[in-house]
Design goal:
Layout: E1 8-17, E2 22-29, E3 35-42, E4 46-51, E5 57-65, E6 70-74, E7 77-79, H1 86-98, E8 100-112, E9 121-132, E10 147-152, H2 153-161, H3 168-181
Helix pairs in contact: 2-3
Length: 182
């Protein structure tokens, strides 16, 4: 249920249209008469996959992330194409990034990645009954740094404790999957 807005939108400006994101600037007025500006990153959303093997190992990827100028350990994930079903995106990204596919898919949740300034919604899926896809990985040029890691779920928690896993969507996915499997 949406709460009523506590401001009036005075003006909306599209400042930037990019390949992945757009930037919108909203000029707002609160009931008190005070005005403010909100910068909003518009993003099409994404799908995130927690792959769970029968022995409770999970798949992670290590990937270079330019904003941090370092490798980041994450769950496989990818951006939704316009109008794309999040499950279709998850299935595509799992194969492309890891070379795996899954026979059983379950949506765990959707979450707002950074609601203070971005409208990105991430759809988290649990994938089970994994197998190597006949076509293998299909990395894009910018994904050449990806390395697939198979890690016991308990070790993933230790990696979070040691701050080796610091990616929010990955931490959320690991905790949600652990809760689901008991």
């Amino acid at each position: 249920m949406k709460a009523p807005m506590h401001f009036s939108l005075l003006k909306r400006e599209k400042k930037y249209h990019g390949k992945i994101i757009d930037l919108t600037v909203d000029h707002l007025q609160y009931p008190s008469g005070t005005t403010t500006v909100r910068e909003i990153i518009e993003h099409p959303g994404g799908a995130v996959i927690l792959c769970l093997f029968d022995n409770s190992d999970i798949l992670l990827i290590r990937q270079y992330r330019h904003p941090f100028a370092q490798d980041v350990i994450e769950l496989p994930a990818g951006k939704l194409d316009a109008g794309e079903d999040p499950l279709i995106c998850a299935q595509r990204e799992l194969r492309e990034e890891t070379g795996f596919a899954a026979r059983h898919w379950e949506k765990m949740t959707a979450l707002y990645a950074t609601p203070g300034f971005c409208n990105e919604v991430l759809h988290l899926f649990l994938a089970r009954d994994l197998y190597h896809h006949k076509d293998g990985q299909a990395l894009e040029e910018g994904e050449a740094s990806i390395r697939v890691l198979r890690v016991p779920l308990g070790e993933a928690f230790a990696m979070i404790d040691r701050q080796e896993i610091v990616d929010g969507k990955t931490i959320a996915g690991i905790f949600l999957a652990a809760r689901k499997i008991g």
